[in-house]
Amino acid sequence: MEHKILGTTMPALEVQLANGETVIAESGELSWMSDSITMRTSTQAGGGGGGFFGAVKRAVAGGTLFLTEYSASGQPGQVTFATKMPGMIVDLNIEPGAGYLVHRHGFIAATPGIQISPVIQKIGSGIFGGEGFILQKLEGNAKAWASLSGEMIVLDLAAGQSLRVHPGHVGIFQESVRFEMTTIKGIKNIFFGGDDFFLVRLTGPGRIWLQTLPLPNLAHSLIPYLPKPSSNG
User: Fold this and answer.
1) Model's pTM, two decimal places?
2) Homologous superfamily (CATH) for 2-222
3) Are 178 and 202 in contact (CB under 8 A)?
4) Which side of the chain, N or C, has fewer Cβ within a 10 Å radius?
């Protein structure tokens, strides 16, 4: 199996499959594929264990209820997944004991052997609509691809070294990195509500990938240009 990252600011992931090879993605992520590709969609596809309840957990973490397997049947083929935001695509080699935590909308696709589960930390009634800080944990034995919004900043934290990060800028980090929520009192935040400002403390050892364009920031910057509701309804 080979892959290419196509484009620049709005990249796409193209996966080349030999006959019989398979790649897994969330339902609805397909952009285009060759005639030799067959599809199978279910809650169990690609290591989506846990049946319906496992699928619900994935949906809570920002994914979809269903996963789709794309397989090359009879001859080689290719399948392509385009990103929805300007940004970057990162390829991750996942092994037992060496998984990754990815922001809730970051997972694009993976090879068979991937296991996806939600990680949710409650951090107050206002932030993220009361849902808390949500990540997707990717583990198992597979190759996976994830997307980051904006530019990508890669940092390596030494053992015990910490960095406090705005939740929206957390992109990916190795599972060896510990995370916890911290608050700074008295700072009003228009996105999260309330008077406390929440940050994620990431503590090494391990590598972290930060993203420069959180979706809430982009949405806020577009508000002045959106049509205003009519005064007469």
Assistant:
1) 0.83
2) Mitochondrial biogenesis AIM24 (3.60.160.10)
3) yes
4) C
